């Protein structure tokens, strides 16, 4: 339960504040003009935009922003990106600062939401596109377990679960392509595209065919179970899919000429670019492993400086543990600084039970 909040200015030097303030000097201050000056071509801003190698490389402004965010400690919890319903805490950004790190689904989902915010990427030459988040794969895969009965997964009394599955099925059927990020045991990412026009499941994998497809097969079986369940409850009409027997559609491995992974950790970066560029028949833009090596840091700058990042320049500090004498008198609003360009921090206090 949130028991209070306050606005803390980064350059405050108050010593008698009851809260533990992570920084009392101005070392974390950032001039708004830096944030306002940053602009990026990714995600693609229009159909006619061509992404070139320099679009993956950090500018001096990008690096300054990254240096600033690195000054924020990983603990306590600090939310630095909030884009729609996806958020990234400071500690989760470490995967973008370490060249051999595996991308977490929090980062994946935030960039997916940036892609979804581009209207021109919602409808491509292959038709209307719906992009799933990184978590949905787990639910679809769960439903693909043939050992579990449908009424065990969706009890008749649990209308919330049933309604959720129904909304998902109707959403999918209203699109020509559904992009699903697949996560193999938190070790490898690849993209599955349910292409209804072609009646096939397309696989875009930066490692080629070296990985098995059992996870994907279970995912498609799970979707089939949901479609069958919904079709028993209501008539599925006026939908865009010519055939609802999605589990019978063939898997088609898409051969990547240049967009191939040559290291052991860039799969998440390749995944995001496949999502951004795949039209249903081809990639709209070319990229290489070298581009992805640069894109790792660039991605951090893109997320942090995005105009739809609600935490842009003002991280949210989260306190999980009960503060001594945790009452409303412990929450103080400090005077604002004389410099109007200094960004403020939102600090929430959370009360926890032990």
From TrEMBL:
One of its GO terms (biological process) is proteolysis. InterPro entries: Papain-like_cys_pep_sf, Peptidase_C48_C. It comes from the Eukaryota. Keywords: Hydrolase, Protease, Thiol protease. GO terms for molecular function: cysteine-type peptidase activity. Residues 86-278 form the Ubiquitin-like protease family profile domain. PANTHER family: OS04G0316900 PROTEIN (PTHR12606:SF155), SENTRIN/SUMO-SPECIFIC PROTEASE (PTHR12606). Belongs to the peptidase C48 family. This is Putative ubiquitin-like-specific protease 1B. The lineage of its organism: Eukaryota, Viridiplantae, Streptophyta, Embryophyta, Tracheophyta.
